[in-house]
Amino acid sequence: MSSVANADPSRPKLVVGIVVDQLRTDYIEYLQTYFSERGFRRLMKDGVYMQDVDFKVSSLDAPSATAMIYTGSYPSQTGVPSAMVYDHSSRKRQPALADSKTLGNFTNDAFSAESLRLSTLSDEIAVDGAGFAAIYSFSPDPQQSIIMAGHAGTSACWINNTSGNWATTTYYKSLPQPVSSRNYSYSVGSRIDTMQWKPSINIKEFPGLPNQKKMYPFRHTFSRSDKDVYNKFTTSPMVNAEITDVAIECLKTLKPGASGNTIDMLNIGYTVAPFKFVNDGDFRAELTDSYLRLDKQLQRLFDAIDKYVGAGNTLIWVCSTGYYNDAVVDDKKYRIPTGEFSIKRAESLLNAYLSALHGNADYIDAIKDNQIYFNHKLLEEKGLKISDVVADARSFIAKMSGISDAYTLNDILSPSTPELERLRLSIDPKLGGDIYVLFHPGWTVIDDVEYPSVSHPVRETPILSPAFIMGPGVTPKKIERSVDATALAPTLAGVLRIRSPNGAVSKPLLVK
């Protein structure tokens, strides 16, 4: 029965979902004595604290991880295997949720949830409320915000990376009034030149830093003349304060959770990703400060929830995106084995090799994001068996310097090892390439097919990723065993007594 028809006072009035990009368990544990009582420590004391949320897949990013969390399924099925996917018709990468049928509001970018194949926790809350639930999302990233709002959300808002304005898409309703007003009266763009990021406490109090890092405290400014200024802003902890400001204004003005007849939802995307714009490649001080600043934003947000909705009326959950990208090019003085892998050269050599075997032609459409895409139309016209050509290419490229291994799509779809099983869960066979390559850690992959070239250092960084659930009916406890990330959505659905997302693959946890 719909909650509109029969409101249940035992259910929360508001669900607040918080996804923190690259949040690490060890940093929370390490810095907990520096935190306030009303931020991370409140989550650890009053909620279910999962220390090890296992995403079980390879090559995560913020959108693909967020889709996993909200659908309860793996990237191979969600429609969002990564932030960018390869489009065979244009032979270019494009955002996974790009949608030319929609228009941007305060942006030229066009996105929608159409390519998100499964229902989300947000969608199920909308269905439970018979379409009357208010569901808002605020994040630095457009695709993450859309995934959190789902197909049935009220509004998904993000920060435009070219103007600093809050933006949305015509797939949803227009920008919420307080957010639209902020664009005109107090936009990020109007303040960007005045912002600076420096240690929030005396850097000498930072734990784990060598003395030379404490002698010269960092200071980052955001110059309007810098073409990357908004990218720098949205990947710094300064963006978390902006998101908290907007979320609090939403709580104050739009009053989600106030009707009492539906469960409303507020979704928030924060970041503690390593800040890659440091001068020396060492971002440990900035990373520590990111956690200290995030704790303050959580405190502000929780205090506002208590004030405007009430702790007894709100279910709050927090989850990491499950990966950590700290890859940088190490200084040559350390003599760590390395090398450079040129995508342009690899394409040329592979085409030459296949031409020698099967006749002169351009067999390779592209090599993007560890995947090799073949020109299937050409192979069909030449009467070649695709699997034979792919097998030839695999044996050739696997011997290239910088490649540690290569797998065909058939290998991945019939996994025989744990590594292949991770790839099976990671790669969408409808969007993926014909061959998946693994690069040697320490090497730098240079995509120099187009100008300007883009470099990507390769590094494996396994981490423990946390999650928290806090609210009425949830018994505080610490779960030290590994928890599948796909169990989070069914668990929350169970607490709310609503349906799980339609593609959820894990059973819910008992948290009461």
Describe the structure.
The protein has 512 residues and is α/β, with parallel strands linked by helices. The chain has helices at 25-31, 40-46, 62-71, 75-78, 121-128, 142-149, 177-185, 188-191, 211-215, 229-234, 238-253, 284-308, 343-358, 376-381, 386-397, 409-413, 418-426, 488-496, and strands at residues 14-21, 48-54, 84-87, 92-95, 104-105, 135-139, 155-159, 166-169, 196-197, 220-221, 264-271, 314-320, 339-342, 364-368, 371-374, 403-408, 435-439, 443-447, 454-457, 467-470, 477-484. A hairpin with a 6-residue loop joins strand 18 (443-447) and strand 19. It has a ten-stranded mixed sheet with strand order 5-8-7-6-11-1-12-20-2-21, with helices on both faces. Strands 14-15-17-16 form a four-stranded antiparallel sheet. Strands 13-18-19 form a three-stranded mixed sheet. Helix content is 32%, strand content 20%.
